[in-house]
TrEMBL record:
InterPro entries: P2RX7_C, P2X7_purinoceptor, P2X_extracellular_dom_sf, P2X_purnocptor, P2X_receptor. It catalyses: Ca(2+)(in) = Ca(2+)(out); Na(+)(in) = Na(+)(out); K(+)(in) = K(+)(out). Gene3D superfamilies: atp-gated p2x4 ion channel (1.10.287.940), atp-gated p2x4 ion channel domain (2.60.490.10). One of its GO terms (molecular function) is purinergic nucleotide receptor activity. The keyword Ion transport applies. The chain crosses the membrane at residues 33-56. It is a multi-pass membrane protein. This is P2X purinoceptor. Belongs to the P2X receptor family. It comes from Ciccaba nigrolineata.
Length: 566
């Protein structure tokens, strides 16, 4: 267990010194190269446009603000002058002001007993209908338990309240202060961006006090006519003045604080906040109290209707920041991956369409995808009369010789890489390979066995499908009769050098040396014919070659396990 742990630690430490890089397939094509350049340029241009349009190169800060308002105007209605002190009532809401447009007055009220206003629950026929001390949510006072006449035809419960009670009638129409639409309001808005330590006011330094806001001619004037505000909000002032309502005055600050592109001014917007269909309007009550000569207190009750204006300020300040630019551009660099995805999809569509017969797509598939199969489920074979390695999948339904497979791309390597010795001899042998393979040393005798799957006449019979493999696809001389097979695979001189190269002190006179020579001969053949050690485990040596090696370096008991390299 300690050895396994030590090996694991060593493997982990070794992985720290390695770097894995992605392997790419380069397509030499003017068409696909042009598509890549076009898409890359489109993505780059899109990134630049997004950065500029959405100002991703700038740091942002939220606005802090304060509001001051001043309403001016005088109206003459019902032989009475209404000035700012009367129609402008301070509001408890922040950044709001109220302008009265309509009023219902109940004068000379004294705290005493009087009939309730005739609403459904207050109407009675006798004292039994009135409960002493009870209070209804719509009542103006506390019931005394008596039922009295409100007028000549209607009786209501008597209440202790400010009498006479307020009548629940609709407000006057048209409104009492309908002329207030000509009133003006000056809105002073100070804003501050704490992150940039920048403060600005919506009132220009050279303000013309006679100006009035107009969306086209005077968009920066902070003096607003009330009628124009409602017109911008798409409302009729005369209609809204009857019951009142709530109007929002929106001030939007979108400030670019960079010196070379400075722009910081307010933009005004107007809209109605209360619902026109569900209980529209805005009203409240207040009273003015007086002392009578007899010491009693008297009051005048006002139910006022009007328009509440809520000033809403929002906005952002922006200033160039290199870190923000790098961060946002870096996050958008991944969009270049869309170029690769688009090209891969286009190639995939072309491959699946009618043009898939093109050699380009077949070659692309072979270069792009490398399939790793389970070594226990595949075999590799090589024929002397074919220039490639063939992959065959298990299980076999016929002889290995007759089973159809798929071509495997293989990069041949020099023989001297396999043996590790005799480089000069190997190079000379490699140069003469084509000649040697086509000219056998001798015709060779025919095999005494008739094997339907054998093409060279040198194979031996076997019942196992995976052992029924010849060195050739078509009839011809056996590879074992070639000069290269004798020199590269069977040569005792070459094999001895290869063994001594790995173990200089190996005893070549040992009784079991044949086993090592035989195994090395198998490997020499695989490296020669398959061109890679990667295929060594599942490469199949043909029957003729296998038995030629076994005859040259036999086992003492001549007991072989089959097609395995034994």
């Amino acid at each position: 267990s300690q050895e396994v742990l030590a090996m694991g630690v060593c493997s982990w430490l070794e992985s720290l010194t390695e770097y894995n890089s992605v392997k790419y397939v380069r397509i030499q094509s003017v068409t696909w190269g042009g598509v890549r350049c076009f898409l890359s340029a489109t993505v780059a241009l899109s990134i630049c446009c997004v950065v500029i349009i959405y100002r991703l190169h700038q740091e942002m800060d939220e606005v802090n603000s304060s509001i001051r308002t001043s309403v001016k105007g005088v109206a003459h209605t019902d032989n009475r002058i209404w000035d700012t002190a009367e129609y402008t009532i301070p509001m408890q809401a922040i950044n709001s002001f109220f302008v009265m447009t309509n009023i219902i007055k109940t004068e000379n009220q004294l705290e005493w007993m009087c009939p309730e206003y005739p609403f459904p629950k207050a109407i009675c026929s006798s004292d039994k209908s009135c409960e002493k001390g009870s209070v209804d949510i719509n009542s103006h006072g506390i019931q005394t338990g008596r039922c009295v006449y409100y007028n000549a035809t209607v009786k209501t419960c008597e209440v202790r309240a400010w009498c006479p009670v307020e009548s629940m009638e609709n407000p006057p129409d048209p409104a009492v202060l309908r002329r207030s639409e000509d009133f003006t309001v000056l809105i002073k808005n100070n804003i501050h961006f704490p992150k940039f330590n920048y403060t600005v006011l919506n009132v220009p330094q050279n303000l013309n006090t006679s100006c009035t806001y107009n969306k086209i001619t005077s968009p920066l004037c902070p003096i607003f006519r009330l009628g124009d505000i409602l017109q911008e909000a798409k409302e009729n002032f005369s209609e809204m003045a009857v019951k009142g309502g709530i109007i929002a005055i929106e001030i939007n600050w979108d400030c670019n604080l960079d010196r070379w592109f400075y722009d910081c001014h307010p933009e005004y917007g107007f809209r109605r906040l209360d619902d026109k269909k569900i209980k529209p309007g805005f009203q409240f009550r207040y009273a003015k109290y007086y002392k009578l000569p007899n010491g009693k207190e008297q009051r005048t009750l006002f139910k006022v209707y009007g328009i509440r204006f809520d000033v809403l300020v929002f906005g952002t300040g922006r200033k160039f920041n290199a870190i923000e630019l790098i961060k946002n551009v870096g996050s958008m660099m991944s969009y270049f991956g869309l170029v690769v995805t688009a090209i891969e999809m286009a190639i995939c569509v072309g491959n699946c369409s009618g043009c898939c017969k093109s050699p380009f797509y077949r070659l692309y598939d072979r270069k792009k995808f490398e399939t790793v199969l389970n070594p226990r489920q595949v075999m590799y074979v090589s024929y002397v009369d074919e220039p490639h390695v063939t992959l065959i999948k298990k299980p076999l339904k016929t002889s290995l010789q007759h089973t159809q497979g798929s071509i495997v791309e293989s990069d041949p390597v020099k023989f001297d890489d396999a043996g590790g010795c005799c480089p000069s001899e190997a190079k000379e042998n490699d140069d003469n390979e084509e000649y040697a393979l086509t000219h056998a040393l001798r015709p060779g005798a025919s095999s005494p066995y008739f094997l339907e799957w054998c093409r060279c006449g040198k194979c031996r019979p076997t019942q196992e499908f995976h052992e029924q493999l010849c060195c050739r696809r078509k009839e011809g001389p056996c590879i074992t009769t070639s000069q290269l097979f004798q020199e590269l695979v069977l040569s005792r001189h070459t094999l001895d050098k290869a063994l001594l190269y790995k173990d200089p002190f190996l005893d070549l006179t040992d009784d079991n040396i044949n086993n090592q020579l035989r195994h090395l001969a198998y490997k020499q053949y695989v490296h020669w014919r398959f061109g890679s050690f990667d295929l060594e485990d599942r490469a199949v040596v043909p029957s003729c070659c296998r038995w030629k090696i076994r005859d040259a370096y036999p086992k003492a008991d001549h007991d072989y396990t089959g097609f395995e390299m034994e």
